[in-house]
Hints:
The protein is an alpha+beta fold. Helices cover 30% and strands 30% of the residues.
Amino acid sequence: MSTLKPRPGRNLWPLGIILAFVLFVGGTVGLIVMASLHSEELVSADYYAQELRYQQQMERQDRARALPEPARIAYDAPTQTITITLPPLQASQHPTGTIQLYRPSAAGQDRKLDLKLDAAGRQILSARELSPGLWRVRVSWTCEGQDYDVEQKVVLKRDTS
Length: 161
């Protein structure tokens, strides 16, 4: 009678360790190659000009806040209008400027209008054609050689009644 001897099994641990090491080194080399091919600049080429524009905008906003009466931007949902009101002293001096309606979620809907105040220093804009949601309304104007800027977020809602 013959006895069957168990066949000695192969030890797979060395193969697993080598395979894990090869995968780790391959992944690391792949990440290094991918990172070196991706050129992402943290500083733009015209960073100085951008900083100057930003500083000038901050100065325009500071001048607008320093006025005795503030400029106001208000949305009236029942009439679906945006009313822009400049301080009476500024409005009486016939300022020139622009109104920007900026839609953060859809750049294609942005609008730019000329500032045309009525005798009371107001401009009323219809918001019926504008999509509901968040809008940023920015009014920039020049009066007696000084630039001013005011910006406000407005959430347009449709009157459901």
